[in-house]
Specification:
By secondary structure, the chain is mainly α. The protein has a two-stranded antiparallel ribbon. Helix 2 packs across helix 3, helix 3 packs antiparallel against helix 4 and helix 4 runs antiparallel to helix 5. The longest helix has 32 residues. The radius of gyration is 21 Å and the shape is globular.
Length: 152
């Protein structure tokens, strides 16, 4: 059993959970983190990058207002899609979360300067789970460096 239990004198005399073992908590934390990664990856892969990559009129209009044109729109859409895929690849999770965070810093600056703060909270809100993923998966960075050094 992965939980520590203690009997408590009560009418039904059932064991009551007093404390959970670190392995049970750790397992649930890993599952929650993985679920968060999948949700964030779905957001970036579908809701964020897809409109840019298919040149949805709202995305085209936004990039025209910025003055960057379709080249930047496709580039940012591709970067978001690559980040979404990277969040699902164990070796790339931390790097992908860090890169998407950097992209969100840029999005925040654009929202503040070009769009006068309209929707500026969205990139800031997204940075929080991305930073959590980057920190929690930071151990993968050593393994990624090891793989890259072997190939070089």
């Amino acid at each position: 059993m992965s939980e520590t239990t203690a009997s408590v004198a009560s009418a039904n005399s059932r064991p009551v959970v007093v404390a959970e073992s670190a392995t049970a908590r750790g397992r649930r934390a890993r599952i929650a983190l993985r679920a968060l990664q999948v949700l964030i990856a779905l957001f970036y892969g579908v809701a964020s990058s897809l409109p840019k990559l298919i040149a949805d009129p709202s995305a085209v209009d936004s990039f025209d207002r910025i003055g960057w044109g379709s080249g930047a729109m496709y580039t940012i859409g591709a970067l978001e899609l690559a980040g979404a895929v990277g969040l699902l690849v164990p070796l790339l999770q931390s790097v992908a979360a860090t890169a998407l965070s950097a992209l969100m810093v840029g999005a925040f600056v654009v929202q503040m300067t070009v769009f006068h703060g309209e929707n500026a909270a969205t990139p800031l809100i997204l940075i929080i789970p991305l930073a959590l993923i980057a920190w929690a998966r930071r151990g993968q960075n050593r393994e990624l460096l090891r793989v890259l050094r072997r190939r070089a």
